[in-house]
Amino acid sequence: MIDQQLVQEHNERLVTGVEDDFAALSVKLARVGVDADAMVARAKGFAVALPSWGLGTGGTRFARFPGPGEPRNIFEKVSDCAVVHQLGAATPTISLHIPWDTPSDPSELLGFATERDMAFDAMNSNTFQDQLDQPHSYKYGSLSSADKGAREQAIAHNIEVIELGQKLGSSALTVWVGDGSNFPGQQDFTRTFERYLESTKSVYQALPDDWKMLLEHKIFEPAFYSTVIQDWGSSYLAATEIGQRCACLVDLGHHAPNVNIEMIVARLAQFGKLGGFHFNDSKYGDDDLDSGSINPYQLFLVFNELVNLEMSGRPFSPFYMLDQSHNVTDPIESLIYSAAEVQRAFVKASLIDREALAAFQDDNDPMMAQATLKAAYNLDVEPILQMARYQSGGAIDPVIAYRASGYRAQCGIDRPAAKTLSSGIV
Ligand code: AFD
Ligand code: MN
Ligand code: MN
User: Fold this and answer.
1) Treating both helix axes as pointing N-terminal to C-terminal, what angle do 398-405 and 407-414 enclose, rounded to 10 degrees?
2) Which atom number of ligand 1 is nearest to the Cα of residue 221?
């Protein structure tokens, strides 16, 4: 962790400016009947989970350029996550990837995290790569494989992930499989999907009553012709077949280009099958770029749907996670900044005048309807985010505070690079 004294000094230098900006924004918002303090409270209540696999430098299929002081094991990843949360105050939980993060002693890991005020969010299973000692290969698929042994092995792995998650206080299993085909004719679409359903139903039977199972779809990659859960339609069908506590997870980078993601969100929400998100941004495919770095308006429109859902009074508790690969930035900086971008979209979406919007929609007034959304989107809510961080004990400008702390340089000394880093990204 970073010395809290440094954070305090950082805040003392900036707080007067923040108070002035916040006062000005409060006056502006009061004119349209919005209480700025209530928005600060909302921002403080917002949380998004950190991906354990996002703490090391990612890479492409061409190369990986590691940075200094990268975490070499799950404990060092948790330490880095704690720093992200200490400064950004929006990321109190960690989403683990198994077996990359498998602890030898789960209670030791839980204790280590708890001491740092961190908890564990959804667990991710991994049946898209072979482990050294496993008897059956996933080369031709896992939960949907034609090989019964591979399917059984994948089912058993998912159940082990649930059992580990129970020991760590998690309450969800996220299942993403790379299963698919590279050639027309390679697989029978129907039989493959049937096998997937049969396997996931077996996993679901082991799901504790208070757990959720989240299905993550992805249009392509690693399979380049067909993918068993390639779109939200397949995901919805599977989640519906599997059971009530199974729902769809939307990764923002897993869609065909130009797909209207916010409408997918609305559809899944309407039918009670919106389970969670992997936030990131993309320009071309599953780019895993930092949230809000390419298309912040899309992120805002997604949150417009989420706030709508929240206001509707229907049951609402999607899992929010970041899922990014940091290739050219310090992962800690990217995660701090990205979490704040997601939080910003949430706050802006909370400022939409929904009554006016509904009236413009019913009057068929597209100009004023879209202007109502833009009015909220164009507001600078930075003082609200800064105030939320300040009141939560975080840093007003967390990336600046992080750089000033020298944390990365210290990690560079404390963590001499290992030959292989355990983190990975697809
Ligand atoms: C995949 C998915 C999924 C998975 C991850 C593995 O986004 O969330 O866990 O990459 O690195 O593309
Ligand atoms: Mn994902
Ligand atoms: Mn992905």
Assistant:
1) 40
2) 12
Dihedrals phi, psi of 77, to nearest 5 degrees: -65, -45
CATH number of the domain that 244 lies in?
A: 3.20.20.150
Q: What distance in Å separates the CA atoms of residue 317 and residue 108, rounded to the nearest whole number?
A: 29
Tell me the average pLDDT across 90-119.
Answer: 98
Ligand lying closest to the C-alpha of residue 101: 1
State which residues have CB under 5 angstroms from ligand 3, the bound ion.
Answer: 286
CA distance 1 to 118: 12
Query: Has residue 253 been placed in a domain?
Result: yes
Count how many domains the chain has.
1
CA of 251 to the centre of ligand 2 (A): 5
Q: Which atom of ligand 1 is nearest to the CA of 425?
A: 11
How confident is the model at residue 402, as a pLDDT? 98
Range of the domain at 244: 47-353
Q: Is 65 part of a structural domain of the chain?
A: yes
- Domain-located, residue 403: no
Ligand 1 binding pocket mutation candidate from 61, 138, 216 (most atoms within 8 A of CB): 216
Q: Tokens for 357?
A: 């919007």
Average pLDDT value for the chain: 97
* Residue positions counted in the chain: 426
Residue 422: band (very low, low, confident or very high) from pLDDT cuts 50, 70, 90: very low
Q: Please check whether residue 212 lies inside any domain of the structure.
A: yes
- Give pLDDT tens digits for 201-224: 999 999 999 999 999 999 999 999
Per-residue model confidence (pLDDT) at position 417:
81
Ligand 1 pocket, Cβ-based, cut-off 6 angstroms? 53, 124, 176, 216, 218, 251, 278, 286, 323, 425-426
Q: Rounded CA gap, 147 and 124, in Å? A: 23
Q: What is the dihedral of CA 387, 391, 397, 400, to 10 degrees?
A: 170
Write the burial class of residue 133 (CB in 10 Å: 0-12 exposed, 13-18 middle, 19+ buried): exposed
Tokens of 35: 């209480």
Residue 421 has pLDDT above 60, yes or no: no
Angle between the N-to-C axes of helices 382-392 and 4-31, in degrees from 0 to 180, rounded to the nearest 10: 140
